[in-house]
């Protein structure tokens, strides 16, 4: 009885098994033992002898039979395209696969065994004995009855399909190193060793807008396979020797056009490179005898060379013209992926530079600060909208600012930088935290208008910000927030917890939702810790936001007074940050120190005609006690006299005089109940005496004004 069912009754599995039969000669002990019936084998052999494949037709079909344990029983991988794929009877089929593919393919094989439903035409890689790979289309079918197990058909992918698959794989990452590695792995189908060398400007993400002059400066970005290489050979991360870069640049730029070159044998390689040092640097081993160098070219007028891809072969495998065409097409079709990765690297570098510029430098004498910033993803298109800053104000106070701009990438970073610099300028000019937030709110609204915001495809509406200002004399902190989570206060003796700020919409809210920003003031004695952060630190899908804030409070409370603040901040983030992050993580911790009591004195004076003289006497006595130099004493007394006299004349009410001994100088403050802003007039006159602020301006290093709930304070700083 014929083992092949008639076409009218054949199932798809039977038809495929019958078609594959002619490619299943008796291989391995399983076949010798008669794993198939003799009649079936005779029929298969009759098919082979009766209708052999045409001799001039490239054989791309292979087949492997597996038992229920997924071990190989029979195979036909005799087609030349499968050379190096080493099937062994009784060995696991997954031994033919790259290790990273084993779990997925095993799951598919067992699924077909259990359900009988086939997996058809899945793109798959096979591993050759030398470490190179072959791309195939793999179908998994239940073996035709009466056999058990599976039949796996393997069709070596046509060049066009291979090119498409390679381009798809190369375009999956925006990391410049991963992109170069994917290109090198795809090129390995045509050679034994492949390398990708990129121009240094491409590697670092610099602008590449025109044909560079002179030679390229090449750096090795990828090398496949990954193994131990001879001493002196250039491996990933190393710069090519200057002579090698010059030779490659000249070779691929013949007649001012980037062209591929082929060096066909070892003798030609040594003649072109010219020195044993360059041969060691560029030749992967003694067996490498031929190489094709293909430029990565970015289309344009003129075209720009991004780097060079190199494919090496042994002497017994010369490059055919059709292979060279395929190599050039693959590199040409994927060069734009390299440029996209370069552009992303450039943006990533710019954003990180901006982030680093905004990080706090130091806390100063009256406060210690430490900050942590971690982007949501390492490659991050990535890095973006969180910022944190701390800086001393000219009047001796310290500002702590944290913000979260909507979105990621360069647009969010630009907005972040603008808001951060504006906040610093306004705080340094003496504005209160709530007034600064009002200006930032207006800025976000202006940035989001039709012309400059939405038309650019980016909106900053809903960004948040929290500002805290610490006074080291009174040990008071003023906090204002625009839609931001409350800071955490840990006093040296007392319960820790979030600061009670009234909720407020984020920046740029609709006019109907806008309300005056509240300023919450509280005492932070020396030794207190204040933590400002963004929501990425405490938002965890498994917890409520309140639970996240409680965890952060516990972590900050565990910081001891003698702990180094930088290490403590890192520990807090490690303990609290979600394992699977969806947003950037930002933390700023400040430890309050303040001034010692003996370094500051405050006097309250009545607004009378003798107030200036009284102030001079009190200040003179204190400066003598502090051992201040005579020149500095004279300057301070003149400035105090002018400021107090002007306060009596133009403001009225009680007058406050404060003197502070700082680490490097003196700070003098005169407060009154007036709300006028002292200014330098065109003639330099503030009052009828003809002196005024020009005296203050000439005798101090800096001076300025800040407003309070009861009036204003004019401050002036001096060097000691």
Structure description:
The chain is α+β, with helices and mostly antiparallel strands. It has 18 helices and 25 strands. The strands form five sheets. Strands 2-1-5-4-3 form a five-stranded antiparallel beta sheet, sandwiched between helices. A hairpin with a 5-residue loop joins β9 and β10. α5 (159-170) runs parallel beside α11 (321-358) and α12 (410-428) packs antiparallel against α13.
SS elements, strand count: 25
Q: Output the structural class.
A: alpha+beta
C-alpha Rg (nearest Å): 38 Å
Question: Spatial order of the strands in the main sheet?
Answer: 2-1-5-4-3
Assign an overall shape: elongated
Our count of helices gives 18
What characterizes the major β-sheet?
A: 5 strands, antiparallel
Q: In which range does the helix fraction lie?
A: 25-40%
Average pLDDT metric: 78
β-strand percent reads 15-25%
Distance between the termini: 114 Å
Low-confidence runs of at least 5 consecutive residues: 1-14, 20-57, 450-456, 684-690
Descriptive tags:
elongated, single chain, alpha+beta, 720 residues, 18 helices, five-stranded antiparallel sheet
Summarize the topology:
Blueprint lengths: L11 H10 L6 H5 L5 H13 L10 E6 L5 E5 L25 H14 L3 E9 L5 E10 L7 E7 L2 H12 L5 H12 L5 E7 H5 L13 E7 L17 H11 L8 E3 L2 H8 L2 H7 L5 E11 L5 E11 L6 H38 L8 E8 L9 E9 L5 E11 L1 H19 L4 H15 L16 E8 L4 E7 L5 E3 L6 E2 L21 E4 L5 E5 L11 H13 L7 H12 L8 E8 L7 E6 L5 H16 L3 H22 L3 E7 L3 E8 L20 H7 L2 E6 L4 E8 L1
Antiparallel strand pairs: 1-2, 1-5, 3-4, 4-5, 6-7, 6-10, 8-9, 9-10, 11-20, 12-13, 13-14, 14-15, 15-18, 16-17, 16-19, 19-20, 21-22, 22-23, 23-25, 24-25
